[in-house]
Sequence to fold (305 residues):
Amino acid sequence: MRESLAPGVWGVVASPFQGSTLNLDTDSLAQLVEHYESIGATGLTVLGVFGEAAALTAAERSLALEVVVEETRLPLVVGVTSLFTGTAVEEIRAAQAVTGDRLAAVMVQANSARPEVVIAHLNAIHQSTGAKVVLQDYPVASGVSISTEALIYVVQTCKFVVAVKAEAPPTSVAIAQLAAAVDVSVFGGQGLLDELVAGAAGAMTGFSFPEALVACVRAWQSNGYDAARDALLPYLPLINFEQQARIALAVRKECFRERGLIKDSGVRPPAAPFPAALRNGMLTHLAEAASALSLAPTAQTAGRP
Fold:
């Protein structure tokens, strides 16, 4: 049987920075990673778009991975920033040198609208590194738009692809088509309930209350839509607040900071900083989410099945 990435919640890890120099904050990173493990995440996605990997030096990427490997035993998906095969291979080899057998897969973006180009890219990566691949379709980050039909063909051709991350809207439509056609896990990141209904294997996304994602996915797996909706419903205002165009990254980091999970909420350019005008609204949403979390069943909040 073809290997597939485990279903559940793969927490997308931020890269905390500190002070005016925006140096990588390894202590906050360790604390954030420990939190994901404590709440029952299936695995972690590190050095993705939310991790600002494109703004990290090669040394910082290696340092971040060292911290993550030291702090948790969860399996890891490591993002690849480059769309060019040669530099992508270099990134992957550097990640493998740090993560070893902890590396479940690397997340590689579709680098062309033409499936034969993507297939050649992925084949070269796999032949050079042996790494399993999560194929990411995220045109906002890559600048590449590829059809769902082309993605399906790529996955069916490349047997080392273990999951698809579908982030081209409308994601639920793409997920439904992918889930019906491929025999690997499909994840979204822009509408959890609708994506689960469409056939998503879980969540691979960032949110300042990842406990809610774990609760929602577990409820879906155990009791279906109504239970999943009830688990996620109290957090929807905060989810909506965090997903504001151009400032989503800074908003989510500021929420993490307010929760005490990271020390500073700085973002590196070209990301925009958190707007002070939104602070009161953020605090209201965070208080509501914290109240919901305090009332949630212990099994959901503590990460126990």
The radius of gyration is 18 Å. Residues 299-305 have pLDDT under 50 and may be disordered.
